[in-house]
């Protein structure tokens, strides 16, 4: 195996970084709520679980996604390491004072070639990211389960309110008896 680059050659290595962005939730369409049809044809509106960040925060109608930007950095080859199956290069980016290494498959003689390779890697990564984005975030719980859970919480809260109202009425009647 003969090295493609020599010590002192300028090479380019592409990479991509992510920037946080927000996109409209695919489940609720940005409304923050979804409609659930129950078994008895009752239609109710519940908070969207896909764009809900958890805790006591409400659904937002948006979900976090990352947008990737590709760029190529110039390096100077300062050393070469050969193995039976691979050639790697020691690189120095003199502007930053950092030392890097790179496999021969990651390095290119021109910035255009490096950017093309970086765009291909970025596209593959974005396709994988979009699969995750369009998937339901809480697969274990259906919308019907969420609706039933909150309806049961309401029912329990109403029972608690009724119980405490009856106690207050008893206490109020006892206070009047003492005053008489």
Write the layout of secondary structure elements.
Blueprint: E1 10-24, E2 33-37, E3 43-47, E4 62-82, E5 87-93, E6 98-103, E7 107-108, H1 111-133, H2 143-179
Antiparallel strand pairs: 1-4, 1-7, 2-3, 4-5, 5-6
Question: How would you sum up this structure, described in words?
Answer:
The chain is an alpha+beta fold and 180 residues long. The protein has a domain of 96 residues. Helices cover 33% and strands 34% of the residues. The chain is built from two helices and seven strands. The chain has a five-stranded antiparallel β-sheet. A hairpin with a 5-residue loop joins β2 and β3. The radius of gyration is 31 Å and the shape is elongated. The chain starts with 9 loop residues before the first strand and ends with a helix. The model has no long low-confidence stretch (mean pLDDT 81).
């Amino acid at each position: 195996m003969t090295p493609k680059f020599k010590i002192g050659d300028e090479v380019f290595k592409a990479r991509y970084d992510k920037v946080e962005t927000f996109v409209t939730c695919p489940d609720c369409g940005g409304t923050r709520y979804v409609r659930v049809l129950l078994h008895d044809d009752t239609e109710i509106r519940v908070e969207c679980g896909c764009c809900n960040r958890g805790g006591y925060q409400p659904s937002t109608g948006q979900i976090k996604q990352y947008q990737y930007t590709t760029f190529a950095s110039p390096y100077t080859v300062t050393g070469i390491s050969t193995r039976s199956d691979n050639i790697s290069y020691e690189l120095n980016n003199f502007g930053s004072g950092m030392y890097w290494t790179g496999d021969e498959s990651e390095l290119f003689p021109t910035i255009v070639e490096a950017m093309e390779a970086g765009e291909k890697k970025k596209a593959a990564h974005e396709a994988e990211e979009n699969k995750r984005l369009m998937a339901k975030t809480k697969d274990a719980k259906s919308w019907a389960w969420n609706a039933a859970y909150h309806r049961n919480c309401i029912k329990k809260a109403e029972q608690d309110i009724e119980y405490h109202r009856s106690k207050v009425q008893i206490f109020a009647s006892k206070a009047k008896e003492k005053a008489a």
